[in-house]
Amino acid sequence: MHTVIIIGGGPAGCEAAYQLASDGIQVHLIEKNNETGGNLNNWYQLFPDRKNAQDLNKRLQEQLNHPGITLHLGMEPSRVEKDGQGRFSVSLSDGSLLEGDALLVATGFKTFDAKRKEEYGYGIYENVVTSVDLENMFRNHAIRTSKGDVPRRIGIIHCVGSRDEKVCNFHCSKLCCITGVKQAIELREMLPESEIFCFYMDMRMFGPGYEEMYREAQEKYNIKFIRGRLSEAAENREHQVQVKVEDTLLGRPLRVTLDLMVLLVGMEASNETQGMARELGVKLAPSGFILPLDPHYGNNLTGEKGVFITGCCSAPMNLTDTLNDARSAAVCITRYLNMK
Amino acid sequence: MNFWGFNISETRSINYDTNDKDMLIHVLQEVPSCKLCIECGGCTAGCTAGRLTSFNIRKLQMFMKRGENKEIREELHKCMLCGKCILVCPRGVDTRKMILSMMKYIKNNQK
Amino acid sequence: MNLEGKQQVWKDYQKEIADDRYYYARSCIRQTFFPGSEWAYLDILKNKLGKDVLDDPRHTTCTGIGYHSDVVPVQTIMTVVARHFALMTEAGYENITPSCITSFGIYTEILETWAHHPEIEEQIREYLWKATGREFKKPKNLAHTSDIIYKFREDIAAQARYKLVDVHTGRQLRGVDHIGCHYAKMFPSKGIGGAEFPAVLSGMISSWGGDVVDYPERRHCCGFGFRQYLVMANRGYSVANSKKKFESMRPYEPDFIVANCPGCAMFLDKWQYTISEMEGTTYGQDGYGIPVLTYEELAGLVLGYDPWELGLQMHQVAVEPLLDKMGIAYDPEMKYRTKEGKDIGRPKCPTYLKV
Amino acid sequence: MYYDNFVLPFTIGLITLLVYLCVRYYKWIRSFPKIDRIKIRRGLFSRKTLVSIKEIFMESLLHHKIFKTNPVLGYMHMTFAFGWFLLIIFGKIESMVYHTSAFNPPYFAIFFRYFHPAKETFPGSETFAFIMDLILSFLLLGILLAVIKRFYSKMFGMKRTTKQRPYDLLVLTVLWLIFPARFIAESFSSGINGGGSFLTHSAGEFFATFLPLRNLSYGAWWTYSSLLGLFFLLLPFSRYMHIPTEIVYIFLKNWGVEQRKQYNGFSEIQTNACSRCGICINTCQLNNSCDIKDTQPVYFLRRLRNHEDFSVQSENCLLCGRCEAACPVGINLNAIRLSTRPDLTRVTKETYAYIKPKAQAETPAKVAYFAGCMSHLTPGIIRSMQEIFDKAKVNYTFIDEEEGVCCGRPQAICGNWKAAKVLMDRNQERIESSGAEILVTSCPICYKTFKEDYTLKIKIMHHTEYIDMLLQEGKLPLHKNDLKTVFHNPCELGRGCGVVDAPNHVLEQVSQRIPTRYDGKNSLCCGGSLANTVIDSQQKTKISTDTVKAYSAYQPDVIVTACPLCKKTLGKTSTSVPVKDIAEIVAAS
After folding, report:
1. Nearest-by-CA chain B residue for C233
2. Which one of B12, B85, D4, D88 has the minimum C-beta count within 10 Å?
């Protein structure tokens, strides 16, 4: 019987674990936190169907009850070694040692640290929050300014930390556009009287139903979309955020005061992803994510034999793609083990 | 005539906070499809009037959305209302009706 | 405003500033419009802080005004600056401290350029040699004179005779800081606190007992812009920038503005008069303007220098309301007289701005 | 002297009505523009008056047009109008025969059975009684039908009957009650005194068996008179104002009075001439496709009459003209609707100043081709026309190839006549500068306005007409093929300008044209009309979908039209059957 070690218990790791275990493979799933789910734990509702994120999370967790899966919660791999037969041994932070025939890296992404865009004032201005903070507000059903008022005007800033040479991120995080649309709709549902803006560079509605959702956001929810990148924000006496953008489609600068500003933070390779890449000697793409062997035929493979990747450690992906990618990785690993 | 040889320049920046959005409210009520515009410019590209003059209906509707009504008052009458723009709009905005609605607002709110 | 967040940013942008032995580079605008400031700076450093500063009479303008107005080519300005470095080297100094923000920006820019393009540095060395027969070493440390004051702000606070507090009510005085574009906007890491939330002046205000006002247009340019001001047709644009700042700071009712750059100090001061004449608007209390100080003047006032000796009568906006609030004694009779009591003439009274 | 107090309600009602009508019509006619007043003066003693009388007989009494649309409905209307007319005429003759004088008071004939002692016979009295009873029964049957129509409109081939206001329902009830009241009054009198014929006599005998007729009879006559008087008093403010007004309208129309751009007395007369038969509701595609139920002419005119807000209804119309074509009264429904659209433009020196005149052509071509704005979105039409010109070796010039100017009709159909006029003048200059003899256009919208609003001295043809002419002249080589086609006649071309035969003729020569029930002036609207500014994109799409469905039912290979706007609009929804312009069919054959 073969054994596979999966590093990272987010949606990709969980789904891959279940698929592999269902194929009769012994799985060790290592997760640094005390619960699985990864970034999904920070989300309230999912696009495009507005499913409760925790429902999906729960489903993924239930799958982990499979007898073939051994969970190692609160553990981090401190050392990974590969022997001549292509077997991996992974030492965990508690000193224990796991052995496996293949390694699946599912260490995912981290959200961009909005403080790095200093001019947006995150952490300095009272009414600047990130999209992750906003999800938390949704969960608590309370959208309030720092003074506790209902924000009458809210601005959602797209592409924070994505497509930005100034923070050395050239890549597109792909999901933020639709997340922005989703959050705008959620905001509208909770605050029917407020004015809600999205300041975007491009609207990239890549998935099924996304463009329709964008259209609905305009037509039904009266969300206002302004094409222009925030150049700087400042706080006024009332602790509102005064933003300056160029209304690029008019070719005129635009000033508007917001009661609440939401930064749609982009995705970067997590520290664990970068650490694993170093440890395993696999290549990184210029974006900092792990570079797959081939973008079409080998997107779960790396240059290292027996080391597989899945989910957002290789690129920003939505959940649909992540889960597909996990299944695809499981297929690749099964085939690899059978050929061994 | 001041002896300075210059005046304090007006800002080019759109001040959304203080601009008058009354026309917008009126037009959105009459033509809700306005909200659907994605600023593709299809309407303007084939515009009969736009071929002969600077008339740009995409921009005018954006100005309206920002509460910059001055330009609309100056430009709107250039439209010939031929309706070609309606046939082009990928979002189904009733562009011609929007123009009529703007005209109506201007007519009713003449100073 | 979340102060912890700001402090984190300030921590991220700290720069190395030499302790002593400064080669002083004067500023064209400062010595013309605020001669008292340069004197005060040298006096504070030498006599209050006991530092070694060389005020070299041989050094010239950096030609920054000409450079930014597109009349001086880059090779010329680099050679002029190289000459300053040569003078510094010859005098045995290694730390250069320009008094002008534009000079500071230019020095920074030139040193950066040379670091990336050594061939240009070589060429400039050759030009300087051919023109003057001089050689130079690059300065070990480059700091703006405000950086020096910032560095010793606590020492100044220890010797302070006055605090930035309204002596009648005990209220902290509200100060607006204006950094100047060329200080950190080009090279954020070269400014204390970076470009977005610079701490150089706000640090002084806080240390000396005042309250810093952070208003929405704080980062905005004063409007000088060289070509904008120098060409009369563009001046409307220049003054519009200052106006934008005044409009934005007015609701905070600031007691004073302190400026990093001599040009900014001049414009923020004089445009208040222009705007009042053109539009009848004044931005201070009771028809006064908002007093505009250089940081040297502010330090001088705190240390108890005589306002007229600091040259505050050269300002367009009257500083008396600020002096009154700080409780600084002054003789109104002596405002437009020399130390000896000779009349130096007085400006025409503005139409709207109270002086 | 034959008199009784009960005639007072009738007499007062009648006199009041006549005075009111005279004043009303005088005021309206006085508001006509001078040119129309001159037309009345000239027409008054001409053959046109006789024609009008014939038309009044055919339409106001026999309702011949409604008959054509719907026989049952026509019969219902006819019984009322013609029946009542006969009752009055024969009653009058009867009274004159009896009285042997033409000058008896008007009420005498109406209440003849009361005043005439039944025992006293006169020549033909039996026959008269029979005829009067016959007419009355004819009328009562009509009322029965009307009652049924009100509750079971489907039986009359109508999807929906006109919805009435409470006031109108009151008047309607009064009208319905008049004839039963007469029947009762006459029966009661007959029951007491005898007389009458098969209906009233038998009914009188029947009633006498169980009712104290002596006590009731007088009251019945009062009721009858009161109902008549009440009806006359209520009439001017009810829809029955159409009865006298339609007669006046027929005269005015035949004398040549026209509905102009302004809403005036003539518009008022037409508005009042509407009988609210509701035929327009059924022809209206807004009703059939979009379920819009408040904008059809019957409701729109009612709003106008009652001074209710009509701003939305004024704009909510495709101006397709289907209602106008079907209107039995022949009211200028489109023109009236258009006259109520406010002019939103303010014309200054700057208006369209950017349109510069074209240089006079040095060697004028014979034909000037004006594609029209919309045609530039359907380059297939333009290219086909160019091919046709080339094949027929026509020397032509393409006026709006590079930069066109809108014909002005889109402005005009929004009511913006002032701005439209400026456009039209500037465009006319540009067209005239071509020096051509024939102006050919591909757009029916342009075509209509070129013909009606421009003062061009050259021949104006839509390309269907022009192609037809080329074919007749044998200048265009022809190949008939097996393509099965249906023709969608654009509203502005068929109903708007009466161009019906040319396209059919052309299509028959180049393809297998399938006749449809929508041929000629019965054509549907594509839904893309610029005239309607109320319905949204989805509703337009719905109309287009239904129209395409209607034509597709004939299983054509291609739906042919002759308008770029129709082509685009139908093409939007017709995914399985291609939509082509007639020029494209001809060019390809």
Report:
1. B6
2. B12
Fold classified for B22-108? Fumarate Reductase Iron-sulfur Protein; Chain B, domain 2 (1.10.1060)
- Neighbouring residues of D409: CB distance < 8 A, sequence distance ≥ 6: D420, D445, D446, D448, D449, D453
The H or E element spanning position A70 is strand A69-73
pLDDT surpassing 70 at residue D160: no
Chains that touch B (3 or more CB pairs under 8 A): A, C, D
Helices (H), D44-118: 47-55, 64-69, 71-99, 106-110, 112-115
**Which pLDDT tens digit goes with each residue over D341-392?**
999 888 888 899 999 888 888 888 999 999 999 999 999 999 999 999 999 9
> Which residues are within 8 A (CB) of A165 and not within 5 positions of it... i.e. 6 or more apart?
none
Residue D566 amino acid letter: C
To the nearest whole number, what is the mean pLDDT of chain C? 93
pLDDT score recorded for residue D96: 83
Paired tokens of A177:
């556009």
A216 inside 8 A of chain C by CB: no
Q: How confident is the model at residue A293 (pLDDT cuts 50, 70, 90)?
A: very high
Other Cβ atoms less than 10 A from the Cβ of B106: the count is 18
CA neighbor of D333 nearest in space, from D292, D283, D287: D283
Q: Which pLDDT band holds residue D101 (cuts at 50, 70, 90)?
A: low
Domain ranges across chain A: 3-108+270-339, 114-267
* Chain A contact set for B33 (CB, 8 A): 219
What is the model's pLDDT at position A1? 83
Torsional class of D74: left (φ above 0), alpha (ψ -120 to 50), beta (otherwise): alpha
From the list A332, A334, A330, the residue with the least C-alpha distance to A18 is: A330
Pair D73, D152: CB distance under 8 Å:
no
Q: B-chain residues within 8 Å CB-CB of C235?
A: 4-6
Sorted by where each begins, the domain ranges of chain D are: 7-30+62-237, 281-339, 367-469, 480-588
Distance of alpha carbon A173 from alpha carbon A108, whole angstroms: 13
Which three-class secondary structure state does DSSP give residue D120? Answer: coil
Burial of A259 (0-12, 13-18, 19+ CB in 10 A): buried
Check if the beta carbon of residue D439 is closer than 8 Å to that of residue D461: yes
Assigned fold of D367-469: Rossmann fold (3.40.50)
CATH of D480-588, one of 3.40.50, 3.30.530, 2.60.40, 3.30.70: 3.40.50
Structure tokens at A291: 């570079």
The verdict on pTM exceeding 0.90 is no
Over residues D120-149, mean pLDDT: 86
Confidence grade of residue D157 (pLDDT, cut at 50, 70, 90): low
Give kind and range of the element (H or E) at residue D29.
helix D7-30
Residue C251: its chain A contacts at CB < 8 A? 236-237
Question: How high is the pLDDT of residue D464?
Answer: 96
**Whole-number Å distance between alpha carbons of D353 and D422:** 9
Which residues fall within 8 angstroms of residue D215, CB to CB, at 6 or more apart?
none
Asked if residue D71 has a cis previous peptide bond (ω within 30° of 0), the answer is no
ipTM of this complex prediction, to 2 decimal places: 0.86
Number of H helices, E strands in chain A: 7, 20
Chain C nearest CA to A289, separation (Å): 27
* Cα distance between residue D155 and residue D73, in whole Å: 9
Asked whether residue D239 carries a pLDDT value surpassing 90, the answer given is no
User: Does residue C161 sit within a domain?
Assistant: yes
What residues of C are in contact with residue A124 (Cβ under 8 Å)? Answer: 1-2, 5-6, 9, 197
> Which whole number is the average pLDDT over D202-209?
90
CATH 3.50.50.60 assigned to domain A114-267? The reply is yes
